[in-house]
Amino acid sequence: MYVKNTKEILDKANEGYYGVGAFNINNLEFLQAIIDGAVEKSSPVIIETSEGAMSYAGDGDFRRGARLFAEMVKEFAQDLPITVALHLDHGHDVEHVVAAVQAGYSSVMIDASAKPFEENVKITSEVVKIAHAAGISVEAELGKLVGIEDNVSVSERDATLVDPNQAKNFVERTGVDFLAPAIGTSHGAFKFKGEAKLDFERLKKVKEFTGMPLVLHGASTVLPRFVEEANNYGAKIKGAKGVPYDVLKEAVKYGINKVNTDTDLRVAFLAELRKALHDDASQIDPRKLFKPAMKAIKEVVMERIDVLGSAGQC
Ligand code: TD3
Ligand code: ZN
Q1: Which of 312, 213, 259 is nearest to 24 (CA)?
Q2: Phi first, then psi: what are they for 109, rounded to 5°?
């Protein structure tokens, strides 16, 4: 079932103290594999597309891309026994938000976290008006997505990570539905130089002060087995490190309900694709080569559903 509003999924997760995976797609193959995994686990799932994904799918026209994604996701979701939402990830301007709203997305993110606080409040409030008028929900971000280094001072942390008091003020003034607090993660395959550490004290305070569904960006685990496999078949990925499963579990325990994952799917897909290209060098049907790569995505999705505790919550 396609949910009109992502709030249906995340309010339930907030009440039930579990996390729901939000997985990025750029194409049909990733969508099918993610949905396959979620169905097998009877788990709700959030599909998300970045602005770049919308332009990519629309061959340069992000509005067309948004419509294509919405049609594709709705078509796949309609007869399924699980709830599926479609979300705009890191929307940076009103144009992309409106494109997603008009296409029929279930929620949007407005990311004005790089702007001064008052500007973030202003643009987020504007997006909340537009999205709520259409009956869909809004995610916003506070703080900067950067890894915590051991030698970083408290004042430096204060300057980059979320300020819990500001979070309360932000939520009250904007009417936003979900909040992504920066607590020490970053996007991509190289999140930590040393130990994977997140600022859980900050997270606990944000949860206590807002009570709302919270979002963890940059949450990929960067599974060593897929990094190694990719490297064995010609990739050159060195020093990759993500958020381990036990750290993710802790994040969920302290109030994270939406767990954004892109890098893990990319790495798994490409590792298996490299292997398939090597092992089946006479193959000229791309679909046959994509199959094992899609299976790897499905495997990643199912593992994460178990870690986040959303299995059976469809
Ligand atoms: O918003 N996203 C997905 C897009 C990031 C670019 O890969 C996330 O927060 C997930 O980040 P990641 O890199 O940990 O999968
Ligand atoms: Zn993100």
Answers
A1: 259
A2: -110, 130
Residue nearest to atom 9 of ligand 1 (CA): 217
What does the alpha-carbon distance between residue 226 and residue 190 come to, in Å, rounded to a whole number? 14
Whether pTM > 0.85 for this model: the answer is yes
Which of 89, 111, 177, 264 is catalytic? The answer is: 89
Closest CA relative to residue 272, chosen from 220, 218, 227, 219: 227
Question: For the chain, which domains are there?
Answer: 7-308 (3.20.20.70)
Find tokens 């078949």 and name the residue. Answer: 233
Active site (annotated) includes residue 89 = yes
Distances (CA, A) of 13 to 10, 72, 90, 290: 5, 25, 21, 33
Binding site membership of 90 for ligand 1 (Cβ less than 6 Å)? yes
Along the 314 residues of the chain, how does pLDDT read in single tens digits? 999 999 999 999 999 999 999 999 999 999 999 999 999 999 999 999 999 999 999 999 999 999 999 999 999 999 999 999 999 999 999 999 999 999 999 999 999 999 999 999 999 999 999 999 999 999 999 998 877 766 677 788 888 999 999 999 999 999 999 999 999 999 999 999 999 999 999 999 999 999 999 999 999 999 999 999 999 999 999 999 999 999 999 999 999 999 999 999 999 999 999 999 999 999 999 999 999 999 999 999 999 999 999 999 99
Any ligand 1 atom below 6 A from CB of 24: yes
Question: For residues 206 and 162, what is the distance between their CA atoms, to the nearest angstrom?
Answer: 8
262 pocket-lining for ligand 1 (C-beta < 6 Å): yes
Let me know: does 204 contact 162? Beta carbons within 8 Å. no
Q: For residue 245, what are the contacts with CB-CB under 8 A and spacing of at least 6?
A: 221, 303, 307
